[in-house]
Write a structure and sequence with these properties.
With 355 residues, the chain is α/β, with parallel strands linked by helices. The protein has 14 helices and eight strands. The chain has a domain of 139 residues: Potassium Channel Kv1.1, Chain A (2-Layer Sandwich).
Length: 355
């Protein structure tokens, strides 16, 4: 029996037999105003899809694998043309939804099915960079499965050079152990995107170690806490940060960082040292939150920023490394600054400084 989300049975009155017809691409479906369904696509598991040949021709760069246009019917032959394809109905269903720019999520297609549909695009001359571009239905459907199949989707993006899809999948790969990459996946990913994946992991770990290095800023000496006393906080910070750096992971959460550093305040008797520690932790959390994940973005929720500013952080700035080509041409650096003048009010600004 055919899956209900792909085809529904219909009766062939002439032969008295049942045939499976797509629940979306069926006779009379008003999918493309002005372009009638003049072509029947037949899948390998005998499901019929009624589509417009003109729509397929417009989308294809090789006349749908040189199967279109179909030759005209001879006099006396029944109207309509049947195009038999080698793909399964589930794959053809996703492929046709992409061509018609229609969402396919309500069918809940498996990741393997969507990957097969994208690869089928190459066969039928459908440019994947157009039909799997950001905000397209198939792009969104693939992202919806990113948490369960990040490596497979990243390999698809790499093999088809779908840069935006690869970048959007990257955050889901932070917890993936690179040592578990199989030879098959490595071949699919290829050297360019494999390098990007390794640099993403190594770059974030290196960034975390650099962010942990500076100790809390010392305050002015007081009668109860001079520079010698403040060295206790510096040593404690060095030990705690070394513990974090030793087990640094690209997917380390801000909650884990705070849980490791916040207890240092318990052993401090100086209120100024406690304030300095709190400001240093808050600054570190914000800096780690804006470290590049796939592409530079301020990946911080307003709630998290608001809570940090309410707890004492009034201003934060961070340098962002530009691409090598931009830095060579412009000799400049980009600096983002987040500031808050009152609780609940957060502003983001940027400044380019020349070296």
């Amino acid at each position: 029996p055919q899956a209900s989300q792909t085809g529904s049975p219909g009766e062939d009155e002439e032969n008295g037999t049942l045939v499976s017809v797509s629940t979306t691409f069926f006779p009379g479906a008003a999918l493309d105003p002005g372009a009638l369904a003049d072509l029947v696509v037949l899948s390998s598991d005998s499901v019929f899809f009624y589509v417009s040949s003109h729509r397929l021709l417009r989308a294809s760069e090789n006349a749908f694998n040189f199967l279109l246009p179909v030759p005209p019917k001879k006099e006396g032959e029944a109207p309509g043309h049947i195009l038999s394809l080698h793909e399964h109905s589930a794959v053809i269903n996703v492929l046709l939804h992409a061509i018609y720019n229609m969402p396919v999520g309500h069918y809940s297609p498996a990741t393997e099915t969507m990957i097969a549909a994208v690869h089928a695009m190459a066969t039928y001359g459908i440019p994947a960079k157009t039909h799997v571009a950001p905000s397209t239905p198939l792009f969104n459907a693939l992202l919806a499965n990113a948490s369960s199949s990040p490596v497979e989707i990243y390999a698809l993006a790499a093999s088809c050079d779908l840069y935006d899809l690869a970048m959007s999948i990257s955050p889901h790969l932070l917890s993936f152990p690179l040592s578990s990459l199989t030879d098959d996946i490595v071949k699919k990913v290829g050297p360019v995107y494999l390098k990007r994946l390794f640099f993403l992991h190594l770059g974030r770990v290196d960034a975390l170690k650099r962010l942990l290095l500076p100790p809390p800023h010392p305050h002015a000496p007081t009668s109860s806490c001079d520079s010698t006393d403040q060295k206790k906080l510096t040593r404690a910070w060095a030990l705690a940060s070394a513990y974090l750096a030793w087990d640094a992971r690209p997917d380390l959460s801000t909650a884990s960082i705070e849980a490791a550093l916040a207890p240092l305040a318990v052993h401090l008797s100086c209120d100024l040292c406690k304030i300095s520690l709190r400001e240093r932790i808050n600054n570190l959390l914000v800096q780690w939150s804006v470290v590049k994940v796939g592409r530079f973005r301020l990946a911080i929720s307003a709630f998290r920023l608001g809570s940090l500013f309410q707890r004492g952080l009034s201003k934060f700035s961070s340098s962002v490394r530009l691409s090598d080509s931009v830095r060579r041409k412009k000799t400049c650096h980009l600096r983002w600054q987040l500031s808050s003048s009152r609780p609940g009010s957060i502003s983001v600004g940027s400044k380019i400084t020349h070296a």
